[in-house]
Each structure stands twice: as structure tokens, then as C-alpha cells.
Amino acid sequence: MVASADRNDAGDAAPVAIICGGGALPFAVADAALREGRKVVLFAIKGWADPAHVVRYRHHWIALGQFGRGRRLAAAEGCRQVAFIGGVIRPALHEIRLDWQTLRLLPRLARLYRGGDDQLLSGIGRIFQEHGLELIGAHELAADIIVPSGPIGQLGPTPDDAADIARGLAVLSALGRFDIGQAVVVANNQVLAVEAAEGTDYLLARIAELKQAGRIRSRAGTGVLVKAPKPGQNPRLDLPAIGPQTVAGVIRAGLAGLAVVAGGAIMAEPERVAAAADAGRVFVVGVNPP
């Protein structure tokens, strides 16, 4: 039997396979891993990963559903660990380009599809582990992207904002047990919107549209976007994430700011997040979990 320390040393020497979805986060994590001396290979998902950024790294392009191809390429690259990073909208089963190995897993995938995103991602993670790839989280590759406690930027929440944050955390704790979303918007103790399949950016766009249509009457600079992991969620899969684009959405929605659970969320480009928050006169804050 190989000692645990030996396995860890070997894992650290081998490149990490990053299943790369949309957004800036996969590249922020890859850069952080490279700074720490880790090798990375990006498995960029066609239609989601940004080609202009992908070309900066060793990479392979794969389509959703090409599990067999991805596993063979990862083995050829010597990868022993895999991380899922970046956004992908869950496709319908009939939209997935199945290779032969994925086709053999189809009955299992069909069962995983009958539930929320956490169930689906956890099941896919187990499949990768059963085929010899250790699942790791973005926070394990890049500790500096974990959201810290306290304000990120010059502004912090007011007592009214703090009350909205507490309400939002309570709502997410209750809904998370049903594998529903990771974000909610609360203003004056009223829940304005809950994230479901649309994702945070569209949630914020919906708030902006509702305000423009007069369906939400709260004054500008009122309300908070609150993000938190689901209770019992595997931190190696789909941690809540924020970035400059999230801050821009908060500003367009006319909210006071953004609160995320410290240590339970990840943040792309922290310097840009702080600069965008300060320029837009909104707060971004890491808060303790309820």
C-alpha cells in the first residue's frame, strides 16, 4: 500500500484537469495554481469556455457528454485530479453529444437529472472518482480566491442591510435543503427574488426589469443580493461564486450591495471586484454563516 503522503506528493506533481466552463473563474484558478507550482490542463467545454483565454494554457476542447474522450485525454496527460470550474447551463439529455462511454452511463445520468444541480454535479463527481480521478475544489487549488470575512472595498452594510442579509441567509438555508439556488435578493425584509435555474446574472437582470416596470417600488440603493452554499453541499462542487460581473449586476439592479458567506464562496479577480464596488458605491462583504 502506498502511504498517504506519497500519494499526495504524486498528486501535486501531476497536472490537474480543470473542466472549464464559462466566465473568468476557471482562468483565475488556473493562474493561481500555476503560481503555486501546480501544472494544469484545461478541458474546455465547447460553447462555454472563452477561446481567447483558453489558448493561453495547455488545453483540449470537449463537448458536453464526451466523458470517454475526456477521461482518455486526462489519462494521456497524466492527470490524477479533476476540478469543475465555471458556468454551464444544464442541457436537456437529448442535447448532449454522447460518446460510447457516456452512452453506457445514460441510465445513471437519467436518474441524476431527476433532481437539482447539487444532485447532478455530485453524481458526475462520483463517476469521475470511480474512474480514477480525485475530485478537488477550486478553493484547494487557489486559496486566495476564497471570500474573506469583512468588507471587500471601502463600503460596508448599514444596520438595515445587515437585517436583509440575515433574512437572506435564513431563506437560503431553508430552500437549500430542496437543492434550490444559491442566491436571493432581499429589501426591507421582503424577499424580492430567489435564484433557480437562471443563475445569478439573470436574477439580477430580473430585479432591474421589475424595477423598471414598477413592480418593485423600493428606492435605489436598497436591498441586498445574498449568496450562500446549500446546507450539506460538497464544497468541491459548485461553490457560490462572484466576480466583477456580479458587482455590475448589483449596480444595474439598484441594490445597496452584495453579501456572501465568508469561507464558503469563491471570488474571481478580487482587485477588480473591490474597484467595481467602490466605483459603483455599493458594498461587497463576506459574512459569517448562520
- CATH classification class of the largest domain: Alpha Beta
Low-confidence runs of at least 5 consecutive residues: 1-11
Helical content band: 40-55%
CATH architecture label name of the largest domain = 3-Layer(aba) Sandwich
Q: At the third CATH level, what is the topology name of the largest domain?
A: Cytidine Deaminase, domain 2
What can be said about the biggest beta sheet? Answer: 6 strands, mixed
Q: What is the ordering of alpha helices and beta strands? A: HEHEHEHEHHHEHEHEEHEEHEEHE
Q: In the CATH hierarchy, what is the superfamily of the largest domain?
A: LpxI C-terminal catalytic domain
Distance between the termini: 42 Å
Number of helices: 12
* Radius of gyration from the alpha-carbon trace, in angstroms: 20 Å
**How many structural domains can be distinguished in the coordinates?**
2
Biggest sheet, spatial arrangement of strands: 6-13-11-9-7-8
